[in-house]
Amino acid sequence: MSQGGTTYLPLKVNMAGVIPIIFASSLLLFPVVLAQFAGQGDPDSFLSRLSRFFDPSSAPYLILYALLIVMFTYFYTAVQFNPVEHADNLKKSGGYVPGIRPGQQTALYLNNVLTRITLFGAIFLALVAVVPYIISPALGLGDTILLGGTSMLIVVGVSLDTVRQLESQLMMRNYEGFLKKR
């Protein structure tokens, strides 16, 4: 709330975007790439067993993938959103959260809210990334995923960003008459 009336501090459920999925995929594919560079050779070698463990259709891989996505979602959200900074900005602008003292108490409150919201975003990201690996073999499509959940998130994110940019450009045209010098 601010001096002029009620306002809202928008906190996204999925503040991290697709970055946690990219981090988790990269981390899990690294041992597979190492095993391929070392060559297949002996099927009982450590790298061959490691490569089989990191097969995207195996249950341990999918569980580890989902856990890494959840972990990286919390990590990236913590890097991206600083509750202390937002609480200070609110305090400096005269805003406050009703029932919460400005400053450190507001920062703790924002951190608690963000932690709860991020849980839903992290679970959503994990499901979006893992479900195509489960459904694809069940539908008889094999290991090929033509359009996974991550791809859909990227397409929708880019589309929404493009629409926002177009809207701001159109708004600027409405204000051009006010901005020109006479």
Structure write-up:
The longest helix is centred in the middle third of the chain and has 35 residues, at 104-138. The chain has helices spanning 19-38, 46-53, 59-80, 83-92, 104-138, 149-179. The chain is an all-alpha fold and 182 residues long. The protein has 6 helices and no strands. The mean pLDDT is 82. It has one domain (19-146). Helix 3 (59-80) runs antiparallel to helix 5. The chain starts with 18 loop residues before the first helix and ends with a helix.
Give a brief outline of the structure.
With 182 residues, this protein is an all-alpha fold. It contains 6 helices and no strands. Keywords: Membrane, Transmembrane, Transmembrane helix.
Total helical elements: 6
Query: How would you describe the oligomerization state of the chains in this entry?
Result: single chain
End-to-end separation: 39 Å
The chain-level mean pLDDT equals: 82
Structural class based on helices, strands and sheet pairing = mainly alpha
Q: Estimate the helix proportion, in percent.
A: 55-70%
How many domains in all?
1
Q: Please report which band the strand proportion falls in: under 5%, 5-15%, 15-25%, 25-35%, 35-45% or over 45%.
A: under 5%
Order of helices and strands: HHHHHH
What's the alpha carbon Rg, rounded to whole Å? 23 Å
Main beta sheet: none
Low-confidence stretches: none
Per DSSP E runs of 2 or more residues, the count of β-strands stands at 0
The best one-word shape is elongated
